[in-house]
Amino acid sequence: MSGKRRGILFLVSAPSGGGKTTLCEAILGSVENIVRSISYTTRAPRPGERDGVDYFFISPEEFDRRVEAGFFAEWARVHGHAYGTGIDQVLSETGEGHDMLFAIDIQGVRQMVDRFRPRGVPVVTLFILPPSWEVLADRLRRRGTDSPEAIATRLETARKEVAAAWSYDYLVVNDRLEAALAAMKAIIAAERQKTALIGPALLPRLTGEEAGTGGVPLPSRKGASK
């Protein structure tokens, strides 16, 4: 039996200014065997962004054609721009055993969970929370890319997004970057060790039994000896 396990999809959401881009970049630069999901978008590149590295920048017309063709695993319109993830990239990377990291909005998370969890692809969702609304507003102002009106819109959207965080597997408060990064690394490490993920490849070699058969059940708390 091959020792290769299927890759995990780590889906990371946060309100604008929550720090998900910074945290995801830090994960990609410090955690092995995890690759970036490169989204397609209709928005213009920001300073320093590169086509095919940060995003695939395409026209609204081309984006709509790809939607009609069923090209995207998920897509959404956020703050007047469209974003989407190609199905082929996800299937290729996870099939090779590579974990994937997505900085993705709530709409996209719901689509990805609905599409891939029923097919047995491991999906883990994380929501990055700001320590307070005051801190989030200050971060948006210091970013210097939005007008006061746009910032107000983003804060209004953020309140709706945070209300949806209950549905995520994990919550990470981004008060100090180092602490938030450590929490994300711990989550990734724990998910990679789950029996359901690595057991089918590891246990048969040690027990001589087919995956999912045999094994000694653990005693319940009620029946455990004292």
CATH architecture: 3-Layer(aba) Sandwich
* Radius of gyration based on Cα positions: 20 Å
Binned strand content: 15-25%
Shape: globular
| N-C termini distance | 40 Å
SSE series: EHEEEHEEHEHEHHEHH
Mean pLDDT: 89
CATH topology: Rossmann fold
**Domains, number:** 1
Q: How would you sum up this structure, described in words?
A:
The chain is of the alpha/beta class. It has one domain: Rossmann fold, CATH 3.40.50.300. It is built from eight helices and nine strands. It has helices at 20-30, 60-68, 87-95, 106-116, 133-143, 148-163, 177-192, 195-207; strands spanning 9-13, 34-36, 39-41, 55-57, 72-78, 81-86, 99-103, 123-129, 170-173. The chain has a five-stranded parallel β-sheet, sandwiched between helices. The chain is globular. 25% of the residues are buried. The mean pLDDT is 89.
